Amino acid sequence: QVQLVESGGGLVQPGESLRLSCAASLITFRMYAMGWYRQAPGKARELVAAISSDGSTNYVDSVKGRFTVSRDNAKNTAYLQMNNLRPEDTAVYSCNAKHSLIGLDYWGKGTLVTVSS
Questions:
Q1: Interatomic CA distance for residues 93 and 77, integer angstroms
Q2: Distance, CA of 72 to CA of 78 (rounded, Å)
Q3: Among the listed residues 30, 35, 76, 86, the one whose alpha carbon sits nearest the alpha carbon of residue 58
Q4: Mind listing the pLDDT tens digit for each residue in 75-101?
Q5: Fewest CB within 10 angstroms: 8, 51, 56, 104, which?
């Protein structure tokens, strides 16, 4: 059974950093674009950052310059480095894997990030 497992969430103060990981199993990881989404209470889910199978990246404007998405195909893992966190970054962060050719996609269950003083 395909699994995406996020880790690295937690409670931090404004200005601090976290690194989220998304470990994938039973997929040909290098063929998948990886996306990090977040959903805050009462808000719609939004795409925060994504990295394609060839390594190109894109970010939502609110995190540009603060977040960095990366991947390690040898470890079947995607990462989201989050620096200078703000209270408005508080959300459940989930990863998504989407096959670059056939459109299959999978979701992790998410990890909670809370930014509060």
A1: 15
A2: 6
A3: 35
A4: 999 999 999 999 999 999 999 999 988
A5: 56
